[in-house]
């Protein structure tokens, strides 16, 4: 075993990290150095793209000012939405703190555009758990899409994890109004959807049904590539500000971006017909949103590097991982198949112990709104629920997969990996 450097000595002395864990992590870092170099190139491109958008939209400190009441003529809100539209190559964007999370943003996109009698198709299999009640797969009678006469169909991914285009073509019927994809893994064991796959999907759909709307759930996917889904032909996309584009500074919020006519429809659902996006107080949050967006490429890069390191460390420790450490990255999530509820819980407890906030809390499985199974969640974040910050979670169902993501700095994400491995070692699960 090599001699420990000063940082490793500190981790061993102050945090009780076993030398074998530190050695495994150090070797894993060497293994993935070429991957990190490629990720740095993507980060730099996106950083300059964001900077260019700020300059083109002539952002000033006047855009950080408060408005009150209805929020009419909120220059900061309007400028922020122009910057989002510029970065994501959208005709229009809604960026609001009153959008409570990614599920809300996606729900607005669906409910704002779809009408009774329409059909929507998800072509990446079952959507994320919290969307099931939005659609009406669970919880009827709560104002779901199903309650309003909007039907749902689902097309599974191919065994290789790609979009099954022939099956999608068969599924599309005369009532099909929208086809949707979830870019990120969610609570599944599959690769995230790449921009290249999205481009092939939209081209395929538009060649057969130009009237059908292509909508992307872009949560966890922003700034992972040189292009975003709208540049690949998507008509509408949605995401959360406490994930990638908030940069760790946005306190809440979500966005919807895309074709102007579709974003207008969504704005009428967000507020009310006749008002749309003209109202909506930003509660003095534009400064955090602007600054978080500016920092987002660097923060996302840190999180992605942490995910790559997690993949290599736990692969070395003998666990199945998805994606592999050298595979392309299209979201910030790393999945590790742990094989038992004890290992899943221990992993999350290790990540919680690595947090700056609530590090003394011990996560245990429990029921959560919107989830079918008990879930164990580790999140000691400055912003509650921010999964761009270091976190890990997973449902208590076989094969007991944990989903590791986030880290405002690479060093913190790396420490989450270290503490997760140490927790498994302490419990005799390595």
What labels would you give this structure?
430 residues, alpha/beta, seven-stranded mixed sheet, five-stranded antiparallel sheet, 13% strand
Please give a structural write-up:
By secondary structure, this protein is an alpha/beta fold. 40% of the residues lie in helices and 13% in strands. It is built from twelve helices and twelve strands. The chain has helices at 6-15, 19-31, 33-56, 75-88, 102-113, 132-135, 165-171, 195-208, 260-270, 286-316, 341-353, 410-426; strands spanning 92-96, 119-122, 151-154, 176-182, 213-217, 236-240, 254-258, 321-322, 333-337, 375-379, 391-395, 401-405. The strands form two sheets. The chain has a seven-stranded mixed beta sheet. The protein has a five-stranded antiparallel beta sheet with strand order 8-9-12-11-10, with helices on one face. β4 (176-182), α8 and β5 form a beta-alpha-beta unit. The model has no long low-confidence stretch (mean pLDDT 95).
Q: What is the quaternary state of this protein?
A: single chain
Q: Looking at the structure, what is the overall shape?
A: globular
Could you tell me the strand content as a percent range?
5-15%
Average pLDDT confidence is 95
Number of strands: 12
Major β-sheet, in short? 7 strands, mixed
> Low-confidence parts lasting 5 or more residues at pLDDT below 50?
none
List SSEs in N-to-C order: HHHHEHEHEHEHEEEHHEEHEEEH
Binned, the helix content reads 25-40%
Spatial strand order of the main sheet: 1-7-6-5-4-2-3
Secondary structure class reads alpha/beta
């Amino acid at each position: 075993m090599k001699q420990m450097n000063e940082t490793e000595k500190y981790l061993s002395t102050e945090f009780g990290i076993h030398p074998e864990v530190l050695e495994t992590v150090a070797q894993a870092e060497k293994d993935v150095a070429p991957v990190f170099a490629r990720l740095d190139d993507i980060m730099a491109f996106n950083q300059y793209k964001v900077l260019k958008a700020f300059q083109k939209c002539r952002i000033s400190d006047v855009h950080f000012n408060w408005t009150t009441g209805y929020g009419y003529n909120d220059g900061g809100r309007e400028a922020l939405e122009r910057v989002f539209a510029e970065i994501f190559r959208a005709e229009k964007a809604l960026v609001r703190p009153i959008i409570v999370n990614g599920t809300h943003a996606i729900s607005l996109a669906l409910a704002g555009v779809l009408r009774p009698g329409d059909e929507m198709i998800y072509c990446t299999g079952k959507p994320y758990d919290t969307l099931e009640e939005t659609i009406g797969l669970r919880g009827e009678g709560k104002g779901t899409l199903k309650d309003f006469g909007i039907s749902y169909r689902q097309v599974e991914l191919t065994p290789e994890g790609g979009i099954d285009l022939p099956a999608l073509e068969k599924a599309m019927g005369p009532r099909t109004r929208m086809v949707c994809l979830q870019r990120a893994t969610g609570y599944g064991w599959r690769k995230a959807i790449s921009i290249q796959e999205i481009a092939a999907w939209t081209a395929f759909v538009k060649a057969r049904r130009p009237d059908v709307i292509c909508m992307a759930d872009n949560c966890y996917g922003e700034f992972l590539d040189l292009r975003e889904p709208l540049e690949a032909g998507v008509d509408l996309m949605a995401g959360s500000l406490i994930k990638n584009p908030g940069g760790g500074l946005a306190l809440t919020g979500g966005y919807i971006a895309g074709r102007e006519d579709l974003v207008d429809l969504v704005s009428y659902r967000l507020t009310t017909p006749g008002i749309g996006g003209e109202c909506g107080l930003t509660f003095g949050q534009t400064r955090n949103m602007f600054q978080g967006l500016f920092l987002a490429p660097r923060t996302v890069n840190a999180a992605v590097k942490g995910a790559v390191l997690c993949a290599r460390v736990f692969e070395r420790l003998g666990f199945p991982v998805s994606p592999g450490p050298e595979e392309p990255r299209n979201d910030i999530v790393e999945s590790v198949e742990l094989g038992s509820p004890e290992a899943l819980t221990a992993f999350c407890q290790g990540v919680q112990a690595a947090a700056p906030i609530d590090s003394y809390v011990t996560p245990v499985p429990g029921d959560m709104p919107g989830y079918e199974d008990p879930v164990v969640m580790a999140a000691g974040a400055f912003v509650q629920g921010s999964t761009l910050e270091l976190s890990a979670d997973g449902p208590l169902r076989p094969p007991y997969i944990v989903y590791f993501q986030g880290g405002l700095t690479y060093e913190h994400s790396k420490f989450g990996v270290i503490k997760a491995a140490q927790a498994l070692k302490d419990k005799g699960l390595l």
